UniProtKB/TrEMBL annotation, chains A, B, C, D:
Oligomer and partners: Homodimer.
Domain Acyl-CoA oxidase/dehydrogenase middle: 157-257
Residue intervals of the Acyl-CoA dehydrogenase/oxidase C-terminal domain: 270-419
Protein name: Acyl-CoA dehydrogenase
UniProt feature coiled coil, ranges: none
UniProt xrefs under Gene3D superfamilies: Acyl-CoA dehydrogenase/oxidase, N-terminal domain, Butyryl-CoA Dehydrogenase, subunit A, domain 2, Butyryl-CoA Dehydrogenase, subunit A, domain 3
Amino acid sequence: MKHAYIPRTTTYNLNPGEELNDLRMSDEVRPLYEHVKKFIRETVDPMSVEFMRLGESKKDRWSFTPEQLAVLQKAKDKAKEEGLWNFFLPDAETGEGLKNLDYAYIAVELAKNPMASETMNCSAPDTGNMEVLERVGTKAQKEKWLKPLLAGEIRSAYAMTEPNVASSDAKNISTTAKLVGDEWVINGEKYYISGAGDPRCKIMIVMVKTNPDAPPSKQQSQILVPIDTPGVEILGPMHVFGHDHAPRGHMHLRFNNCRVPKENMLLGEGRGFEISQVRLGPGRIHHCMRTIGKAEKALDLMVQRGLTREAFGKKIAHLGGNMQIIAQARCEIEAMRLMVLKAAKAMDVLGNKEARIWVSMVKAMVPERTCKIIDQAIQMHGATGISHWSPLGEMYQDVRHLRFADGPDEVHWMVVGRHELSMP
Amino acid sequence: MKHAYIPRTTTYNLNPGEELNDLRMSDEVRPLYEHVKKFIRETVDPMSVEFMRLGESKKDRWSFTPEQLAVLQKAKDKAKEEGLWNFFLPDAETGEGLKNLDYAYIAVELAKNPMASETMNCSAPDTGNMEVLERVGTKAQKEKWLKPLLAGEIRSAYAMTEPNVASSDAKNISTTAKLVGDEWVINGEKYYISGAGDPRCKIMIVMVKTNPDAPPSKQQSQILVPIDTPGVEILGPMHVFGHDHAPRGHMHLRFNNCRVPKENMLLGEGRGFEISQVRLGPGRIHHCMRTIGKAEKALDLMVQRGLTREAFGKKIAHLGGNMQIIAQARCEIEAMRLMVLKAAKAMDVLGNKEARIWVSMVKAMVPERTCKIIDQAIQMHGATGISHWSPLGEMYQDVRHLRFADGPDEVHWMVVGRHELSMP
Amino acid sequence: MKHAYIPRTTTYNLNPGEELNDLRMSDEVRPLYEHVKKFIRETVDPMSVEFMRLGESKKDRWSFTPEQLAVLQKAKDKAKEEGLWNFFLPDAETGEGLKNLDYAYIAVELAKNPMASETMNCSAPDTGNMEVLERVGTKAQKEKWLKPLLAGEIRSAYAMTEPNVASSDAKNISTTAKLVGDEWVINGEKYYISGAGDPRCKIMIVMVKTNPDAPPSKQQSQILVPIDTPGVEILGPMHVFGHDHAPRGHMHLRFNNCRVPKENMLLGEGRGFEISQVRLGPGRIHHCMRTIGKAEKALDLMVQRGLTREAFGKKIAHLGGNMQIIAQARCEIEAMRLMVLKAAKAMDVLGNKEARIWVSMVKAMVPERTCKIIDQAIQMHGATGISHWSPLGEMYQDVRHLRFADGPDEVHWMVVGRHELSMP
Amino acid sequence: MKHAYIPRTTTYNLNPGEELNDLRMSDEVRPLYEHVKKFIRETVDPMSVEFMRLGESKKDRWSFTPEQLAVLQKAKDKAKEEGLWNFFLPDAETGEGLKNLDYAYIAVELAKNPMASETMNCSAPDTGNMEVLERVGTKAQKEKWLKPLLAGEIRSAYAMTEPNVASSDAKNISTTAKLVGDEWVINGEKYYISGAGDPRCKIMIVMVKTNPDAPPSKQQSQILVPIDTPGVEILGPMHVFGHDHAPRGHMHLRFNNCRVPKENMLLGEGRGFEISQVRLGPGRIHHCMRTIGKAEKALDLMVQRGLTREAFGKKIAHLGGNMQIIAQARCEIEAMRLMVLKAAKAMDVLGNKEARIWVSMVKAMVPERTCKIIDQAIQMHGATGISHWSPLGEMYQDVRHLRFADGPDEVHWMVVGRHELSMP
């Protein structure tokens, strides 16, 4: 009657000596990493202070002033000059680029100044869009859109999420594209389209349903839609806990019989899911590394507050369970860091498809736990923690938002759970 | 060596037959309760829609339009006419008023429309301020400030929290008032002063330190400061997760050698803590009942979303652990409701002082658990949950804020824990 | 686009003035309640110490010594003499008995000495079995089994759970009874049959499948099986975390072509579910009240330990987050107590069927939270907490077991969730 | 007024390219690792089945039968012959041995059969005791005790924890040793002394207070006490949730004027803490790796149960939130594994002292989270989960016990928190 215990073979119990467990940054990337840190410290940090100052008096919240753009351009020119430009991008000929593990270490640094990524032309969603164009774009598509994106002259958006369906199940996508003559006619609604409010945003990649009768994973396509195409209607910015994030915005869009040339289709009809594989893995890892940067910052703020405020005759950090909260935050951060590094390494070693379980684990784990850490930091700050005097409130909103972006936690747990149940 | 187990006598294990366990609303209050519900449904609900509509096009975010004020006034007149006016207030002669338990049931209803309380002249912090003036005000103070407050002609603020100290420990209060001749000269800073931005706000009750050398609980006083007193500087609104709550605002104030007549002192020098006892117990209970109203609304929204959206071939409510989340939310809500009713009853039967452990329990329990329920409702809504299309984001912010207001959770747990350790 | 919020009508938002919110014990039960407390203190407590002492040197773990039985009998005689006997039982003629709410208060007291219930002939599963016989038994069944049970001369068991199927879904019951001539022939296996190891246990009520082709809720029957029936094989005691609970035991039984007369069927073929309704509601409430008694004891022990041990120069209760843990335990206990009282009252006022949501809520809530409180008490005791020097280890095991008994937590949450989703 | 955010330099943000992030097993240890796995599979697994079978009919629970000892000896001889013997031990001359990281990988395998460690003479507490004797023992001490331990002829115990004080604060140690003539006279009580009940246990290392007037960290000493020394009184086995773990036992001991020669002192008077540094780091890491092995087993059992039982028309693994529970368990296990590997590597690279923060993190993190995973596995098994039919109940008890052993969680969080607060 005793339970017959037969241990399963898991993909997690790999050979302990193998490369997958080596989480070091590559030696050859170290100079780039140091260069990026130096550039942020010396160029981006002062530039961003200036940029904010110049924006303080502007009238139109949904634009940048010429002075702002000039300051930003100068920093971009400097980055380009120093070779800190587009370094996220795989080499066109060889397909080789920065390894995910190496980029993960760099992403933590990029997260430390909100303008750092853009200055080095490495900001989302442009990175994903450029990578897609690089890998699957036609020569003409590259000439028209990839070139100015690589030069940092325009910006772009990625339109997937829809307001009227549970788009966490991509089969639900309801925006349609129908071929009429030589043009695709697009109709539907999208929302939370980050960056579509930026006056410099010129092109969108839009997820549409083209083949409703094909098998579920062959119904979707991705297509290029210039933002000034007639019929593209920007209905307004979506808020995140009351923020509209002007002037970049998370926009709500409607496509009203919006026509684009047949050639704007990416890769081919019904291949939208294939393209998603290219972009989502790395994007999720980068989100997670940036989030860990935020968790670290929240812990730093918690400690600083805990050591500078007093109540009931003690420093707050020494009151009640606060020291244990601080210790557990540190432990969570280190555990999250190792998991993200491992997921990045798994992508490098096993490929995006095999590594998807690792990616889903960190995508479900990191934002939720970081929300908790930020919330505890807020609590240790009292009302100041949710005020505009502290960055914690905005950090919380950003990270809370991540628990839906690129798939809600629940969908990622489902991916992990299904795999676990299918292991022999 | 066996542990000698000696059960303690607790104040919680009271005689099971006694009144404290009767959580029914009084028969005599039932008509008022029904009247309030009807008034909200028939008068406040349509008025508030009109009020919002009239405010949409206004230029100055920090004012109301005359049209808005007229609509509101009409509803207030109707309430007064029907006798739904100031019903929170104890009778001046007898000290008798609505019991806390009865008011708790009504507070749930008031919470269902954000304008309901004001329409019936029962909104915070005016209620607390009026109660204080009624109980401890001099005849002149009552004539000058209580009268127009009771008539709903002006509004008021309560200034306790300070930005530069951990004011959860009230001994830390650093705003000073010094008697110079016949005037109190006030200096210091306060923040998160709700309602101080309202153009109709005319008077503040300010917590100050007058007797730094007295024993800790005798150092503070509460004093009346008209908001137009020279030296009162409104530095700006504090944000709550990016919201400024214009036009009422949670203001940041500075007192610069601000002079008020000697007669503005309430009750007497060094009696600030005594006054706090009057106002804080009921205020906390009302907060908690309103919060339960929000938890119920979050659960309703969760259920509605869960039954109307589909993913992976199922209604969301039936996916994964969602049904259990819904069930546990219901259970938490009912547990919270009973605890708040019990705390209210304890105040009625035992008095505010004896009941303070119950009040601290619910003040620490209710906002934290409600935050969790709202957060789960948000997650079930996807990105819409944090957008301006759903009330959930704003509800989260309000309830999160409550975890500091009137003492952070940690201080309330400390009160409960200390009592537990001191029981024989 | 704003979410149209339509509040649902819930069965929880009942009229606030109604009886359901009166959680006081009935005046007429108060003398019984006081009498029970006095009897436990004066008679049961010393008797149980004596009983344990007499058992220390016994050879056969699966029996009681004649001396033990004599001591117990004396206490039972005294209880009977004082009228503290079978008071759980509804009146045969009127169907009236103690209200669930009143019994709930008494159950807390009964829980304080593990022998208290038996001494007053109120111990599980005899109470449930007697109630079933009283309500649905034939005259002959009552004469043969109810009479000696009421007299405290024999004990009984209730056999529902099976080892080979998920019996939380009662449709899975696989023990069969087939009518062959004038006899039911029973085959199958049952486990965790509490009390079936007691040498005084003479009769079992067994849940069997008699009508596999009927609709799911009409397939089961309950039948009386004397424990000495040929074919009843006791395979051994089931352990709970290594305990076998000798001499009463949670037995593992097999029925091998076990024959009982046709007349042993209770109520009628296919009416097994109906009978369950009679017994399970009150049984679950009693479990929960006894569990709250254990949570209180765990908190008492936590406080005593916290105030008598020192480390790092402080009493343990004042170290780190311990005071908050203690405060939160108190708050949970009071919330659980109110919920159980409300569920008991709901059974009294609404009937078992309508009240089942309340019962499921407390059955899922109380054991899980009490496990956590006991676990925290263990942690505050160090290794002593899990040793035989402290009652905490055994308490943990008992309460952990309750998270499956009478339906696992998950099934109860499902009941609550389904109801929530079906409310208009 | 904006918060000035100055990131702290942390010891956690080390150079990303450095060795500390390389968590691979050493190439040179791979053959040993494979050998150990093969030996467990081919020799230990069948031997342990035989050993259990031989023990089934034994009369004295506190002994082994000669047949049992013969079977075990045969396996030990085989291990010695194959060179799988004492491999935990550093080389006497060079101080070099297996790196902690390498041993961590092997410890997971050793955890898979409860007799594996002993068969290869690598079982606790002998490993720690041998390491201490090797490092600090005199020639005579080594000859007398280390030699037979290394040969696997005797076993040993380590006596630190005391029943009457909070010994998590080592300054509280109350067992005394006083030098009287040429002998140390020892008095006091110890409990939870694992293995002291084993008939083969001959020697104990005992933590005593020798210098009560010295600074706190110089008051303790460690001393060798043969278990047959007059005055050593074994009072009985301590239980863990009702288990006594015969015949090895966690014993309760009393030292009554127990005399040992002056030469039995280890390293020197007042140097007890120094010795602790030698043994505790690796011991804690080994505990944690074994615990992860248990978490994996619990997850395997959860999956197997989930895929073989059905209720409500579905496999249990697909009911409610179960798939998410399974996914989160996998994620926790992988996070714990990486943290333990990192802590082991930190010990190798930074030394035990610098790595202590990492060790405290995993010691506080791993047992608590594993308890939760085992508890969830129990819940998915229904009552079988806590019965003797499943290993889960015993696994829970062992891991729960670990939350006190070698310092309770709270003390480890305190170590981590203090370090965090002291970082610049």
